Amino acid sequence: MNLKPDTLKRIDEVIPHYPSKRSATLPLLHLIQEDAGYISPEAIEWIAAKLELEPINVYELVTFYPMFRQQPIGRRHIKVCRTLSCALMGGYKTCATFEKEFNTRAGPGEISPDGEVTVEFVECLASCGTAPVVMIDDELHEKVDAAKAKQLSDQIKAEAGQKKGASRP
Amino acid sequence: MSAPEQRRLIFQHIDEPGYTNDIACYLRNGGYEVLKKSIGRKPEDLIAEVKKSGVRGRGGAGFPCGVKWGLVDRKSGKPIYLIVNADESEPGTFKDRYIMHQDPHQLIEGIMISCFANNVKQAYIYIRGEFPHGARILETAIAEAREQNFVGPDVLGSGYSCEIYVHRGAGAYICGEETGLIESLEGKRAYPRIKPPYFPAVLGLYQCPTIVNNVETLCHVKHIVDMGGDAYTKIGTPNNTGTRIFCVSGHVQRPGYYEFETGKITMGQLLNEVCGGPLPGRKFKAVIPGGSSAKILKFGERFKGKTRAGEEYDWGVEDVPMDFDSLGMIGTMGGSGGVIVMDDSVNMVEALANINAFYAHESCGQCTPCREGSLWMKKITSRMVHGEARVEDGALLKSVADQIPGRTICAFGEACSWPTQSFLAKFGDEFTQYPAAPKSLRPNGATELI
Ligand SMILES: NC(=O)C1=CN([C@@H]2O[C@H](COP(=O)(O)OP(=O)(O)OC[C@H]3O[C@@H](n4cnc5c(N)ncnc54)[C@H](O)[C@@H]3O)[C@@H](O)[C@H]2O)C=CC1
Ligand SMILES: Cc1cc2nc3c(=O)[nH]c(=O)nc-3n(C[C@H](O)[C@H](O)[C@H](O)COP(=O)(O)O)c2cc1C
Ligand code: SF4
Ligand code: FES
């Protein structure tokens, strides 16, 4: 495993928070996913060895908890809330706007053709009073109607364009 | 009668201009004074105050906090753990979010007082994975409190030590159920445990006695210890003491969070006056009063009966006082305080299809009635919405829903069947008409779920 020094440091800090090493599985999965983008078979083996578990003990968590993924996703992760309060305020249209803007389908395994985004339709994000809500990476966006979804999409595209421009020799 | 004023106890500083979530601001506002006083008192006295206060769990079940603390096994010789339930996963609920983001030290002070009262040396805050900022804010706040000796070894020189750690979930609703949460914290799948006979108070985390309390409940503890249990009972109404935060979402003019003395405000006052009434040109049709699993109420229906005190009541939805007991009496629940409002533009089949999709996605899969039943309810309502309903579907839906509650390990079984049962009982005509005229039943012309 090729983990960043900071990730390794944080892994060693978190394990002693628990009287049983196994409790650190979820925190380790989070740290490694943040570092590597997803959970590879190698990562599962690595965590198991680190916490003195069998790989299946780790693997069964990866398949149970929706936030963990086993393949890479787009550069930006757009999570649109699907649940009732957001749906009542137009969440389905919000999701459809992102799908259209990036020519993709909502789904955990989908990546837009330009590799820029993965759009996911997720369950209640606990901000129902400002529905419809969207999380882009770690950032919550409130009252995202179709028009605001278009704006956010344009912004993401502009930022992507800038990055491309900057990396050109 | 016009609505009472808000009584902001827990949300006193939420959205206050200039109020920040760092410890300096908290201390300027009198923060940690209650902890300082508590550390000098006998732990039993603190528990007695919480018992006297009658405060009921704000996580949704409304179980009296003091009674729960009284049931903790203190003779086992094993360590006692405290877990803060910050999973906030019930659709329609968003109060704990604001406490943790805007006033984290109020929670930490409540945790430390509760830990001291119960001789807890280690506490965990189980926060849902979708609150990455919340987790960071809490970690920073704990570090600040540690620096000032409010948390950690030898708290305020008293000889008492206690650590708090933040533990992040990863997107599974069932982690809010306390025994599922405990399994998750042990590093396993969040499969709820069978209870009774053993509640976490006796066998919880690592098979040790464990207190699980909601974020808001622990904030109330701080205020109870501050003013005294007796004074706290003067807020609210008998058996429904203190304040309650309502999280209002859906079709009202001013959705948001509002804190009132429990039982002092009715549904009508909350929705019409506080939240500004329906959207222009619309009428209220239905409301779910306590998170998406609570049974739905239909505007226009009436509830008659006798209160525990023997008083007769004859209420419309607007007249119901928003407290645990009154909402229980009319066949639903106050639950987590999430009030979801639907107006006359909503097609109830689509609304139920949305709810059913949630529960089918979130069942942990341990119990057959829940795993299969939630999936079947989703399949049936989903084909109704897509114009593929079969004539027998209404009856089939009811039969599936009726076979789940009481036959499962955890209360998710009830949670997933109550919406279907109550929607069918109150809006059954919309479901039976469905096979014949699906398109015309879409008042807002939507082509997808809602
Ligand atoms: N806040 C949220 O996001 C959500 C809240 N809920 C709420 O959760 C409620 C159901 O929760 P449950 O924990 O299943 O309810 P419960 O009634 O089984 O337990 C409530 C609390 O009292 C304790 N308790 C009860 N009897 C006890 C005894 N004899 N000894 C020791 N402790 C005892 C339990 O350990 C628990 O902490 C629902 O009513 C619903 O409103 C459901 C989903 C999400
Ligand atoms: C399916 C399910 C999900 C739950 N989710 C939560 C939750 O997200 N937050 C919470 O505080 N309680 C939740 N609960 C209730 C907890 O099991 C437990 O009753 C509560 O944390 C106890 O704290 P309290 O007494 O302070 O309310 C849930 C219960 C069930 C059955
Ligand atoms: S009732 Fe549902 S969620 Fe609860 S343990 Fe059974 S299958 Fe899991
Ligand atoms: S329903 Fe979307 S945040 Fe709760």
UniProtKB/TrEMBL annotation, chain A:
Any idea which positions bind [2Fe-2S] cluster? 81, 86, 124, 128
Q: Which CDD domains match?
A: TRX_Fd_NuoE
| Keywords attached to this entry | 2Fe-2S, Iron, Iron-sulfur, Metal-binding
Q: How is the cofactor bound?
A: Binds 1 [2Fe-2S] cluster.
Among its keywords, does the record have DNA repair? no
Identify the InterPro entries for this entry. Answer: NuoE-like (IPR002023), NuoE_dom (IPR042128), NuoE_N (IPR041921), Thioredoxin-like_sf (IPR036249)
What is the required cofactor set for this protein? Answer: [2Fe-2S] cluster
Which GO molecular function entries does the Swiss-Prot or TrEMBL record give? Answer: 2 iron, 2 sulfur cluster binding; metal ion binding; NADH dehydrogenase activity
Cited Pfam families = 2Fe-2S_thioredx
Top-level division of the source organism's lineage: Bacteria
Give the Gene3D superfamilies listed for this entry: Glutaredoxin, NADH-quinone oxidoreductase subunit E
Q: Which NCBIfam families match?
A: nuoE_fam
Cited PANTHER family: NADH DEHYDROGENASE [UBIQUINONE] FLAVOPROTEIN 2, MITOCHONDRIAL (PTHR10371:SF3), NADH DEHYDROGENASE UBIQUINONE FLAVOPROTEIN 2, MITOCHONDRIAL (PTHR10371)
Q: Which family does it belong to?
A: Belongs to the complex I 24 kDa subunit family.
Task: Supply the name of the protein.
Answer: NADH-quinone oxidoreductase subunit NuoE
What's the source species for this entry? Horticoccus luteus
Automatic annotation (TrEMBL), chain B:
Domain NADH-ubiquinone oxidoreductase 51kDa subunit iron-sulphur binding, which positions? 349-394
Keywords of this entry:
4Fe-4S, Iron, Iron-sulfur, Metal-binding
Under InterPro entries, the record lists: NADH-UbQ_OxRdtase_51kDa_CS, Nuo51_FMN-bd, Nuo51_FMN-bd_sf, Nuop51_4Fe4S-bd, Nuop51_4Fe4S-bd_sf, SLBB_dom
Q: Which GO terms describe its molecular function?
A: 4 iron, 4 sulfur cluster binding; FMN binding; metal ion binding; NADH dehydrogenase (ubiquinone) activity
Its family remark reads: Belongs to the complex I 51 kDa subunit family.
Q: Which NCBIfam families match?
A: PRK13596.1 (NF010120)
Query: Mind telling me which PANTHER family this protein's record contains?
Result: NADH-QUINONE OXIDOREDUCTASE SUBUNIT F
Protein name in the entry: NADH-quinone oxidoreductase subunit NuoF
Q: Which species expresses this protein natively? A: Horticoccus luteus
Tell me the organism's taxonomic lineage: Bacteria, Pseudomonadati, Verrucomicrobiota, Opitutia, Opitutales
